[in-house]
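User: Fold both of these, please.

Assistant: Here is the first one.
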Amino acid sequence: MQLFRDLPDALANTGELALRLAFTLKDLGYRFPEFPLPPGQTPLGHLRELTERGVRARYGAGPLAARARRQIAHELDLIGRLDLAGYFLIVWDIVEYCRTHDILVQGRGSAANSAVCYALGITAVDPVGMELLFERFLSEARGEWPDIDLDLPSGERREAAIQHVYRQYGRHGAGMTANVISYRGRSAAREVGQALGLPRDMRDRLAQLVANWGYQDPDELLTKHLPEAGCDPTAPRIRRFATLWTRIQDLPRHLGQHSGGMVIAAGRLDDVVPLEPATMPGRVVVQWDKDDCAGLGIVKVDLLGLGMMSVLQDSLTLVRETGGEVDLAGLPSDDPAVYRSLQEADTIGVFQVESRAQMATLPRVRPERFYDLVVQVAIIRPGPIVGNMVHPYIRRRRGREPVTYPHPSLEPILRRTLGVPLFQEQLLGMAMVTAGFTATEAEELRRAFGFKRSERLMAEVETKLRAGMARQGIHGAAAEEIVHAITAFALYGFPESHASSFALLAYASAYLRVHHPAAFYAALLNNQPMGFYHPATLVKDAQRHGLRILPIDVARSQWLCTVERTDGGLTVRMGLRYVKGLRERAARAIVEAREEAPFGSIHDLARRAHLERDELETLAAIGALAPLGGTRRANLWTAAVPPPGPLFMDPPREPSPLSEMTDVERLAADYAGTSVTLGRHPMALRRAALRHRGVLSARELAGVEDGARVQVAGSVIVRQRPGTAKGFVFLSLEDETGIANVIVTPPIFARHRVTLVAEPYLLVDGIAQQQDGVISVRAVRARGLPALGHHVPSHDFG
């Protein structure tokens, strides 16, 4: 200042220049795109017009119409103050595009709390009828954009919606958010092993030692299990491997693509954030992840691919093609057959309720109406389990414990869940009723105790909560119980709106499975991999329910599985997509060629469909050439003969010197060539020997008394070790009659670890446990059974 005192204007301009040069990431210049409006309309006016139209369609003059209009007026007032009308219009436009292009779409998450979203057709859950809390979705104090997730069918239909957004906002105006991929578990073991020059087979063995469970035992160090992989723990390279593998966990590896998050901007997005072309053609990726984008106010819309949405849409198409009609919006909500299947845990393939834990809980909860299914979807979650809410709810549901409330004022909030808080919305309501919080303050409480928790903020909010309850006259044990319920559950509580959206899909899938099984199972098989179960298990489940599955046939099969009408009713024909090693182009060539003229011989098929020799041999081995005459082995013999070429006639079929396949060989050929078998289950081939040893089938297990010593055996189709299960392992063993559930305690798991993790077939000796019609076996010993050729891969995860 003294140095330039003779230049006061220069000093003043320096200060002004410094202010102009100051830059933070909040000054990126990001603008949300403007929605194209009808002439003379404002965004809020147009949104109000669309929602009024939606209210008339959704509610008409029914009993909820007046309440719905009041709620929508409240929501629109807040949307207007926050200047968010354009955002809702843009999401509505994406939904309308999907509807007009026959793409099934449903909004989920906290957006289902909004009556505006329901009126616009974005969500399918009625928040007014279900008394959901709007502020869980949007509040004035939150200072961030709302988050609307759209579930779409996986694959081409979802990609069509994504490309619509690119067309609407330009290649430089929209992009997929990035996802930071970290070094984890087995992949890290393989990469560290490769960097150290370990042989491939050793790398694979080391990777198998790494637990991919949700539960991580602090004492279960990788170094303890190195000898199981044939490694010397004292060898320098192996010790280096163990050290590096431990240190590399959770470090960033590369940028990937988020499963569905898209950001959009007015103008060029690359003025704000660096972009890069995705590996998938027609896509652009933002080089920041979703949290970075949210922190900088860049708006994201999630277009999520959901396998069950594809199954539902494909099922509806197959139902129409076979002369039926199903309207998902008009399904009866009280179908007895659907609820009977849920109560019996007959739910393989049903969205959200097909897991082992869900199937073990369904007969105890016994859903009887839609809200019971909402609870069922939410109850097998970390929040209710960690918060010890599951067992009290089930005891009250079964009439073994009286329904009580921490305070009489909470009865309206907790009545539907029998006095047990299960949902985030209930926690917000509890704070509003007992402490006088506003809806905005209640949402701030939830966020304070959420994943990004701050000790200081939590202490401030808890003090405010206690003060509010004291003003309402709530003290002592009741106050402590309420504080504990709210603060302990806020971290993991599941949103009721989210559970309701999922319950709609669960009910729809259960309805189609019960009433249109051929269409449902065909669609399910066409959309694999998804869900818990391998296609081999889905096929056997369908057969146990009396659905006839027809084999792959070069004269009848399409690329996808199809529904065929036979004298016995509707059946499922397996598609050529299940032939391992068969190119899709070759499969479609088979279909096109036979439409011109039937195949005259195996060589005629190979020539006209341009099949490779290994493709032809696989078709022969799985029996797909049966309509051309001959047995599997005979057709393998013929397929091995070189074709004569286009100028010569096919040689006469020579008798095969090979003996025909045995049952075991056919089973091995089926699994090797298609991953499924339509013949006998592998366990059926062992049944006589197992019965001689006193081993029960899954069906027979249901009849044993609680505490009885039993033996069960089966193909391991699911292994789980959830983070909330304190080290217990849960196995699902499939045989020809169904599925048996096995519980393994931590000491038994430690004793039989390699067998339980690696053996595809298990024989388990244990003690039967019967509870409310749910039967399981607590393992005492486990040993492997010899595999019969190929086996079904198990679904192993946390």
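And the second sequence with its predicted structure:
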Amino acid sequence: MRSADFPSFAPLALISGVLAILLAALLSGSFVHLAVALLVLIALASATGFTAVGWPRLFAALFVIILLIPIRRYALPGNLPFQLEPYRVFVILLVVGWAASLLVDRRVRPRWTGFEWPLGIIVGAMVASIVANPGRVQAASVEVNKSFTFFLSFLLLLYVLCSTIRRLGDVDRLVKTLVVAGAVVALSALVEARTGFNVFNHLGRVIPYLRDLGDVGGFQRVGTAKLRVFASAQHPIALSAAFVMLSTLAVYLAHRYRQRRWILCVFLFAAACASTVSRTGIVMCVVAALVFLWLRPRETRRLWPAVLPLLVAIHFVLPGTLGAIKQSFFPAGGLVAEQSVSPGSSGSGRLADVGPAIAEWKVQPLFGEGFGTRVTFPTGAFATRSSILDDQWLGTLLETGALGAFGWLWFFVRAVRRFGREAKRDETDRGWLLASLTAGVAAFGVGMVTYDAFSFIQVTFLLFIFVGLGCAALAESPIRLAAPEGDKSPARRAPAPTRMARGEV
């Protein structure tokens, strides 16, 4: 059927969607009038062209919400089986708008990402693990449904982003949005490190209808007296990972525009990452630097002299932080000994978890114990408590078996190869953008060894955003972006992208 035939079904689809959501509001018995007004606006916006607002602006708003409104800390009023958090509402609106636009707007059409095979294996492994473990899945059905819903939202975001963002200029503007919003979080993290005041714990006082689910923060790095910051994240480790990923985009903007504001953002992200006193953040920084050294060796070597002034600045802005980081890498008795304590118990070291986890995995090596069934804080009928694994790769191996771990490994390797290969051959600004995205994705993948990454929604969203922006950049012609103000250099055109880079093979 041709795309021109779809608009004839649009009114029926819109009316059906509106009635379904309205029915859910009626059954829940809360805010029916608000739901009616909101759904009428959604239907009108979809029928008249949802993209009138502009997909780049919609995604920019989503990025701001994800970074600036802490996830699992605030929710909107409502009586639903799940917390009505702002990011969930906006993701639902984006997906519904995209579905409606596919019906009524010929300019909007789905686009392959090039990651269908690894994503298919990941989804297949999740389903297979659920089918193979009916008892565990039944006992932890709430957690399983929640985990699957989260993954589905990440997946839908990836496809909507890849299908609707079609210009390099739009990708560039979205990168700026991420960096600016991230810089606000970084600045707040520095304030929190110096004063102990987390501005994100007080958003409910200034944003109407935002219900506070409880503050976070207030614990120290073990073995030091240094307070660890949270800012808008769920944990200091996840915050450090987000800062490292965003810093790679700031490096791209600093190179492209040669403006002090973007250089300042790089320094802000580095200092804020240090303020979390997280070893994971440092490891991810090293990985990102190695990726830049691989893809842009000459330019990266030129940046090494900036490391010393950065360390001096961190020393004065955050007294004691560098010492705390050093202590975390060189604790009394050694790092290996510290990470090998209390195997199989709560609070065990990362290395201590490996042996018991591998023994547990051997019971169900191919499909694992069941996706979403490893509940660390059980409630209700589910009485089995799983140990906390600060290793997402190990957790994935246990839940979805070797098949799921292979799917995720393929996903990361393919992303790094596709984006990195094109960045290597494209010497324009687009190539630098792809290099930055490659560095961010690679850092995330390696960082998963040191913390349970998928438990933290904000930074996992960043992973899929990075991959989506990379897919959008790969699909476009590798021409130089619009020259920044004051740039008189002529436009350069790179070779056309290969079929593999575009995801056609």
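The beta strands are 74-75, 211-212.
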